[in-house]
Amino acid sequence: MSESGQGWEEGSPERLYVITGGRSGGSETSTLDLVTLVRARTGPPPGMPPEQAAIVRLCSSPLSVAEISAYLNLPVSVVTVLLTDLLAEKRVEARSPIPPANLPDVALIEAVMHGLEKL
Amino acid sequence: MDLRSSDPLVVAGPRSEDALPETAAAAVKIVIVGGFGVGKTTLVRSVSEIRPLTTEETMTQAGVGVDDTAGVERKTATTVAMDFGRISINRELVLYLFGTPGQQRFWFLWNGLFEGALGAVVLVDTRRLEVSFDVIGRLEERGVPFVVAINTFPEAPPHPVEELRAALDLPEHVPIVHCDARKRDSSRDVLLTLMRYLHSLALSTEAS
Ligand SMILES: Nc1nc2c(ncn2[C@@H]2O[C@H](COP(=O)(O)OP(=O)(O)O)[C@@H](O)[C@H]2O)c(=O)[nH]1
Ligand SMILES: [Mg+2]
User: Fold this and answer.
1) CATH number of the domain residue A89 falls in
2) What PANTHER family is this protein classified in (chain A) (predicted)?
């Protein structure tokens, strides 16, 4: 968990600031949702920053943004910034969530109902 | 001085049996909202196929009047944890359940959370209804469809559903159910109540 020797706390603003290069992720309109599924396209190339490389390794099977955040112990906002770069570099692909709507379609609702009934 | 470490970051990912199949193509989410200790984590744990995970968000990200370009050293990293779990609906579709605290000071979390969510479960402890009022009002404002689940703690005096409906000022069509968040079947039934409610809403919208 803790990166010993770095002398800063897991979630400290300093660490987060360095990881994202000072970007907040708030201003860019992100298409990433908490439940967007992310899948790596390639392995991490040599020299990739450790957090990005860790994401690429985690996503050797599809994984949601929320799960990436949990496993990396980084806020979702930070993970979103990193993923935006990885998407632009085509290191990962995003499987978008069902289009947001206040009224999801009937077939989708029925699929979820049937899945839950089988639990 | 270079602050970055070039050592690989060792991260324990999902256990191999928890990995989603390659066919997983899309995911949906349901939000479980309620006061502290009302049983959100318990509910998520009882139905989740994975051990619940925790994701954190920092208060400063919410733009609580913090100037982004001001020195980061002045930001306080107040973080709020959200528990979540997962249910594979079928080979393509995955359902995520997020538990989030209902108190007003945590509403900054709601933007990313409720966007695109199917709906919400308001989990209620009848001994502390106050939080539920605010939550229900806020969900109505946002137009998020929800059901109310009364988590039955043994110490809580029993209340008939209609009494609670009046106390919470809930319209007739909003389902209220009792549950025991510790029990998988009971928690599953709460989720099904929400889905059946959403189904009826979707059908009536289609028809009109
Ligand atoms: N008797 C009873 N206890 C419960 C139930 N659900 C949760 N609890 C207990 O209430 C406490 C708080 O639950 P937790 O899930 O952590 O609440 P949260 O803060 O909403 O996530 C825990 O000690 C649970 O074991 C329930 O349905 N019945
Ligand atoms: Mg909890």
Assistant:
1) 1.10.10.10
2) DUF742 DOMAIN-CONTAINING PROTEIN
Helix ranges restricted to H, chain A: 13-20, 50-58, 65-72, 76-88, 106-117
Cβ-proximal residues to A1 (8 Å cutoff; 6+ apart), any chain: A10, A73
Instruction: Summarize pLDDT for A1-24 with one digit per residue, the tens.
Output: 333 334 445 556 666 666 676 665
- What sign results for the dihedral spanned by CA atoms B88, B94, B95, B96? positive
**Is the CB–ligand 1 distance for residue B150 below 6 Å?**
no
Do residues A38 and A52 make contact, with C-beta atoms less than 8 angstroms apart? no
Count of CA atoms in the C-beta half-sphere (13 A) of B197:
21
- Count structural domains, chain A: 1
**Alpha carbon separation from B125 to A9, B8, B33, B38 (Å, rounded):** 36, 46, 12, 6
Tell me the C-alpha distance between B171 and B147, whole Å.
11
Look at residue B166 and tell me if it is in a domain.
yes
pTM: predicted TM-score of the whole model, two decimal places:
0.88
| Beta strands A37-40; A63-64: pairing state | antiparallel
